[in-house]
Design a protein that fits this description.
alpha/beta; TIM Barrel; 8-stranded parallel beta barrel; 43% helix; 14% strand; globular; binds orotidine-5'-monophosphate; orotidine-5'-phosphate decarboxylase activity; RibuloseP-bd_barrel; lyase; decarboxylase
Length: 283
């Protein structure tokens, strides 16, 4: 079956389930707080609980691959199963693997996550453009072919990101702004929006000096454990808030293992996001 483009599928999911993205980040400290062992059995129980509790109501999930890779092939098997179950339940999966390499190796990463028949096929993948935006071309091309999307690291939520992303090129444009401009070009003319998103941290304060109007989604991590709140979104994103997919990982996960408590936490964040977004004129 051919998939509609990721941008269209994401817009529909945002309209029906709301824009919240719940991150699945099975930190060792969370496994312990949930009374689970820090091994593949603990990982599996944790992941299953999150999927069973939230897959039917949350629009987007972002499993963080590192927490699964740390257990080797059996950890990857847990990730594969989670991706399949989430997608089966009608949720979208953004694989957070932050891949980025020279073009020919990038093509292999793209095959891993963006080829329709791959065991780890995901609706979208986070990628790092810091080997040059053009090095991502194989992923852009395969995503287009498969109806998948990308989230390109543009302005990350961590304070260390600024030394690279705010560095200014000879033409006066910052590196982060350059990535946003590449994405705007990628998404030009697409309706309801393009499939090539930017990662822009919710922790960054006023970003009005950047053109966030890329006609594509803006994945916004940093809410909860990193200190940002849904109420910050309008001040950070302005009118572009309509395209924001706010990610919360630990802020939701710390409420487990009780399924009802996880659902309540996700619903609270979703309500706060809705309130913040609805309050923005023109959003
Ligand atoms: O690409 C990401 O998802 C990402 C980009 C970024 O700028 N900052 C950031 O925190 N992330 C990821 O978003 C998640 C944030 O987790 P919490 O801080 O627990 O909500 C982690 O999986 C990070 O790897």
């Amino acid at each position: 079956m051919t998939l509609a483009p990721f941008g269209a599928r994401l817009r529909e999911a945002m309209d029906t389930r709301g824009p919240l993205c719940v991150g699945i980040d099975p930190h060792a400290s969370l496994l312990s707080a949930w009374g689970l062992t820090d091994d593949v059995d603990g990982l599996e129980a944790f992941t299953r609980t999150v999927v069973d509790a939230l897959a039917g109501t949350v629009a987007v999930f972002k499993p963080q691959s590192a927490f699964f890779e740390r257990f080797g092939s059996r950890g990857i098997a847990v990730l594969e199963r989670a991706v399949a179950d989430l997608r089966e339940a009608g949720a979208l999966v953004v694989m957070d693997a932050k891949r980025g390499d020279i073009g020919s190796t990038m093509a292999a990463y793209a095959e891993t996550f963006l080829r329709k028949d791959s065991p780890l096929f995901s609706d979208a993948l986070t990628v790092s453009p810091y080997l040059g935006y053009g090095s991502l071309k194989p992923a852009v091309d395969l995503a287009r072919e498969s109806g998948a999307g990308l989230f390109v690291l543009a302005l990350t939520s961590n304070p260390e990101g600024a030394e690279v992303q705010r560095a200014v090129r000879a033409d006066g444009r910052s590196i982060g702004a350059t990535m946003l401009a590449h994405l705007a070009e990628e998404n030009a003319g697409e309706t309801p929006m393009g499939s090539f998103g930017a990662v822009v941290g919710a922790t960054l304060g006023d970003l009005s000096s950047f053109d966030l109007d890329i006609n594509g989604p803006l994945l916004a991590p940093g809410i909860g454990a990193q200190g940002a709140t849904p109420a910050d979104l309008p001040a950070v994103f302005g009118a572009a808030v309509r395209n924001v997919v706010p990610n919360v990982s630990r802020g939701v996960l710390r409420h487990g293992p009780d399924a009802a408590a996880l659902r309540d936490a996700a619903e609270r964040y979703a309500d706060e996001v809705r309130e913040a977004v609805d309050g923005v004129k023109g959003a």
